[in-house]
């Protein structure tokens, strides 16, 4: 076995040192040892080929050790699981079921107790067993082991819920992270990322139960294909991963080809034969699991982007695809996280909330909009991303008790690129119908960039949205002459004063004069004005003295998750003396 493989295997073995089942079984064995005085207790996980000793306890003689592997066919555990009931044998050398087994010849005469360990759904996990001198056990010992088996069966379910994917019974991502964290420093792995192509279309054509059955068959075949050479896991949805005990690039690619060949062979699912295609990416190097995931995923995405299926190995040239790939993943898995920042009417306490998007990337953490919006536009994900944000915000806001009486509007950013699409109003209407959110509670915020586009191409969509009841606000107002021109061309109801004016307002007479003039102009045009970026009480007071009514900024609240919005509003009321009725 190569040094890299050896380190990986040791890492896998050491992983159980922090697992609930292993630690708890050691406590159980210590207790049983005190009660029964026996020499050996062990917990074995069994399949049709072998028994793996998950945990072992020996008083003196080292009969079994953790991670020992025994032949299933020639084991005492098989007797227990075949009978599906507790088994007690006073003398293994004299009993007809055990006297002929090689294990008996190896261990010599022993007394044996074995009890099946079952999961909650009745599936057998393995056995809890005890060994001692011949005729060393009495009937109460069997009762104690039966009680221990029930307890350990519960813990097997706990382990499964933490580390095993419920649908496919493969390891989950949590397990992979834990495994990787406990590897030796010089251990090496390669990773294969697998995405089932057009899985959504399969679900739509055959139904979700069929799709789930296909995923189970897929997982079973993947597990069989990589047995002994890697760790298979379900990453998310229709995405799977295999960590390979390190091979050369040539060997890893050959294994990936074998996986591809097996997974693209026809499946028999619920009486239907179906053949699928997969896209696979291979990462040969990575200092963390996240490195491997990002790189193998980027390689896989290169295959999809080219409209093909097959296998690609990550190369440094693919690094530029990583941000775009993160967006694709965010859209696919609805990973965009909505934060809310209140916009408050200072005189009455009326509140609008602005929905602000964050990308919750599984490897990169929470990513702000400045990091991904340019890539979203470049790669064509902007519309889908914004519609997903609108949908999530509409659903989330309605989950807030009494939201209609407490929040007058939901403000959402809208890009000019989207408004150029003739079908954009219909796409918005579809989201509002789906979420049952009233159109007259939606406010789209347009930024200054809209002036770069042909307003005639945008105006019909804006008018159709206005007819639905949607209102518009112009962001970054006062930043340039172009924003003033937009007031002549678009039916906006509100403007948002650029934060540069607010920042300088308390100490800069020119800023004060500009803000005063803009407020007066907007009052004549019957436009509401929001001051953005308020961070100090001095800025708040200066704006109030000039007659500005609507306020937004960190002084009131930072962007917060919906569940923190109520507390944030309460703190803003106390801090700024805002009326609550």
Automatic annotation (TrEMBL):
Cross-referenced SUPFAM superfamilies: EAL domain-like, GAF domain-like, Nucleotide cyclase
An example molecular function term from Gene Ontology annotations: cyclic-guanylate-specific phosphodiesterase activity
Domain (EAL) ranges: 320-573
Annotated CDD domains: EAL, GGDEF
GGDEF domain span: 187-316
NCBIfam families the UniProt entry points to: GGDEF (TIGR00254)
Protein name: Sensor domain-containing phosphodiesterase
Natural source organism: Paenibacillus antri
């Amino acid at each position: 076995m190569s040094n890299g493989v050896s380190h990986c295997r040791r890492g896998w073995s050491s992983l159980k040192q922090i697992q609930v089942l292993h630690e708890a079984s050691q406590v159980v064995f210590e207790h049983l040892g005190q009660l029964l005085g026996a020499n050996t207790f062990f917990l074995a996980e069994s399949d049709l080929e072998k028994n793996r000793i998950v945990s072992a306890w020996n008083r003196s003689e080292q009969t079994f050790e953790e991670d020992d592997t025994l032949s299933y066919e020639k084991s005492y555990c098989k007797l227990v699981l075949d009978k599906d009931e507790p088994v007690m044998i006073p003398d293994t050398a004299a009993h007809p079921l055990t006297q002929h087994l090689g294990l008996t010849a190896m261990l010599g005469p022993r007394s044996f107790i074995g009890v099946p360990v079952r999961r909650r759904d009745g599936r057998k996990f393995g056995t809890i067993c005890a060994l001692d001198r011949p005729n060393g056990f009495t009937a109460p010992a069997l009762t104690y082991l039966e009680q221990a088996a029930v307890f350990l069966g519960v813990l097997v379910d706990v382990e499964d819920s933490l580390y095993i994917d419920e649908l496919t019974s493969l390891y989950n991502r949590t397990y992979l992270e834990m495994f990787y964290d406990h590897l030796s420093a010089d251990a090496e792995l390669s990773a294969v990322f697998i995405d089932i192509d057009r899985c959504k279309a399969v679900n739509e054509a055959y139904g979700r139960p069929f799709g789930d059955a296909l995923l189970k068959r897929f997982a079973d075949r993947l597990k069989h294909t990589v047995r002994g050479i890697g760790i298979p896991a379900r990453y998310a949805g229709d995405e799977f991963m295999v960590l390979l005990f390190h091979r050369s690039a040539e060997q890893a690619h050959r294994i990936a080809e074998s996986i591809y060949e097996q997974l693209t062979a026809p499946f028999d699912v619920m009486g239907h034969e179906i053949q699928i295609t997969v896209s696979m990416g291979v990462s040969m190097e990575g200092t963390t699991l996240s490195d491997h995931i990002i790189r193998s995923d980027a390689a896989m995405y290169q295959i999809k982007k080219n409209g093909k299926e097959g296998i690609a190995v990550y190369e440094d040239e693919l690094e530029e695809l990583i941000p775009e790939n993160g967006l694709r993943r965010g859209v696919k898995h609805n990973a965009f996280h909505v934060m809310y920042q209140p916009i408050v009417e200072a005189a009455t306490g009326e509140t609008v909330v602005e929905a602000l998007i964050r990308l919750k990337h599984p490897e990169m953490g929470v990513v702000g909009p400045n990091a991904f919006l340019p890539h979203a536009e470049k790669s064509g994900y902007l519309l889908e991303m914004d519609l997903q944000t609108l949908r999530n915000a509409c659903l989330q806001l309605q989950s807030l008790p009494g939201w209609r009486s407490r929040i007058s509007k939901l403000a959402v950013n809208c890009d000019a690129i989207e408004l150029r699409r003739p079908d954009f109003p219909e796409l918005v209407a579809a989201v509002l119908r789906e979420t049952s959110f009233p159109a007259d509670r939606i406010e789209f915020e347009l930024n200054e960039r809209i002036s770069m586009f042909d307003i005639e191409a945008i105006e019909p969509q804006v008018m159709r949205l206005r007819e639905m009841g949607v209102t518009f606000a112009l962001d970054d107002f006062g930043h340039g002459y172009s924003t003033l021109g937009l007031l002549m061309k678009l039916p906006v109801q509100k403007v948002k004063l650029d934060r540069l004016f607010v920042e300088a307002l308390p100490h800069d007479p020119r800023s004060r004069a500009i803000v005063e003039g803009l407020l007066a102009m907007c009052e004549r045009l019957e436009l509401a004005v929001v001051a953005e970026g308020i961070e100090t009480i001095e800025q708040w007071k200066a704006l109030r003295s000039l007659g500005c009514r609507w306020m937004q900024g960190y002084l009131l609240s930072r962007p917060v998750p919906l569940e923190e919005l109520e507390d944030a509003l309460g703190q803003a009321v106390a801090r700024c003396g805002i009326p609550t009725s």
